[in-house]
TrEMBL record, chains A, B:
Residue ranges annotated for the MoaB/Mog domain, each copy included: 9-171
Pfam families for this protein: FLAD1_M, MoCF_biosynth
Superkingdom as given in the UniProt entry: Bacteria
Full protein name: Molybdopterin-binding protein
Species annotation: Sphingomonas agrestis
Regions annotated as coiled coil: none
Matches recorded under InterPro entries: CinA, FLAD1_M, MoaB/Mog-like_dom_sf, MoaB/Mog_dom
Length: 251, 251
């Protein structure tokens, strides 16, 4: 069973993430959305608002993945350089997209009009299409397999909504979780053996400390639902054999 | 005034981040800690639990930064492959560190003893030193400019505490924030002019939508406190001139 695996990468553009000022939410948001589209998030890079850094990351990742997403840096201010940097990466000019201009003209009609700064948000790499933005005026941008999204998470979410169902993907990755109040080191061998015995499945082990106790969740992932179920049964049996009552669904 | 800038990169190792299951907290945590050490977080990569991906990221980033940190994948289970992958990247063997073994023997003395799975956590790239872990048994690892830390955020925090003050850095980056209830597109030109007029300073503009209103915070960063203060004064004046009452400290 050698099914085609579709992959995506994400470049998070923003000094605010690298300075620690802002907690990124777009990695988890995009990853969850991609899972549903049958696409795996294969790699993420966080780069500063510096053209060379953006160009390097975009060009490294867009050729080895089916899709490349970026978040951040598409607003109207001087530190919003994403469109220019990606145009350099793609080797094309930056042009004002007439439809984006029309959208912004409408959006700002009752908000002081379309100034030069606002018109910046209609600029796209030549040949790009737009991604609808129901939340605020400025649209996202699609150029080939490159998707340029906003950085503010609820605007990013709206753009992902607009893209739902439009990208080709494979089988969605299914997952089930089993938890137990156990130190993962106690059942590490059983976990590894269970994974090796079931090709096509991955078992992640995620320890935590809560209420003064050690526990772990074990996440079983595969594209085949019956395989996931078999591995979950094996884990339930393995945990009980170790004297640890498993908790289906995780802790 | 050309001061030496010290940089660090971070490789986050973990399928759980790329699957969207777990929200990363270590980027923001490490970034904030590095700021205090006078070191800038220059780039982050999130890679899966796959040896080739870890090797590529570690080798790309450790040569072009003063320090390279990794988080995740140093536990006792089959998916914890960080130490082996980094040893491959460094071109050295993996050995059991006698002091790490002693730490684990003590830690597990009353917890069922040091099993093979637990002994995995004493393995290090040959030539490594240990980083103390007050939280749980297994230590972090330092090899040259590479720092291998835990993925569970409060354990990572303990290891960073142990490293505080031990790394050479430059002047800490200072920052002050000014907020206003304004669409950033209204004052984009003033922001850009203010930044250009003050070499050595960066002004980040971070828009948000709250209580049905549009606002933005402007973060002024530089290593020179007097310069930061001058730019904040300029921003306060610029915002008032635009008819928007600034809020010092941000919104």
């Amino acid at each position: 069973m050698s099914e085609r695996i579709w992959t995506a990468a994400l470049v998070v553009i923003g000094d605010e993430i690298l300075s620690g000022r802002t907690q990124d939410k777009n990695v988890a948001q995009l990853a969850s959305w991609l899972n549903v589209q049958g696409i795996r998030l294969a790699e993420v890079r966080v780069v500063p608002d510096v053209q060379d850094a953006i160009v390097e990351a975009v060009n490294a990742l867009r050729v080895r993945n089916d899709y490349l997403f970026t978040t951040g840096g598409i607003g109207p201010t001087h530190d919003d350089i994403t469109v220019d940097a990606i145009a350099v990466a793609l080797g094309v000019s930056v042009v004002v997209h007439p439809q984006a201009r029309a959208v912004l003209e409408r959006h700002y009609e009752t908000r002081g009009g379309l100034t030069d700064a606002r018109l910046r948000m209609a600029r796209v790499p030549e040949g790009a299409d737009l991604i609808a933005n129901r939340m605020s005026g400025a649209p996202g941008i699609r150029w080939g397999n490159v998707f340029i999204l906003a950085g503010v998470p609820h605007i990013t979410a709206g753009m992902l909504d607009a893209l739902t169902g439009t990208l080709e993907g494979g089988l969605p990755v299914l997952s089930r979780t089993v938890g137990a109040w156990v130190a993962e080191s106690e059942i590490a061998e059983m976990l590894g053996e269970t994974e090796r015995a079931h090709p096509g499945v991955s078992i992640g082990s995620y320890p935590f400390f809560r209420e003064g106790k050690t526990g772990a969740n074990f996440v079983v992932r595969a594209t085949d639902a019956a395989l996931v179920d078999r591995v979950v049964e094996a884990l339930l049996g393995g945990l009980r054999a170790a004297g640890r009552e498993p908790i289906e669904g995780g802790i």
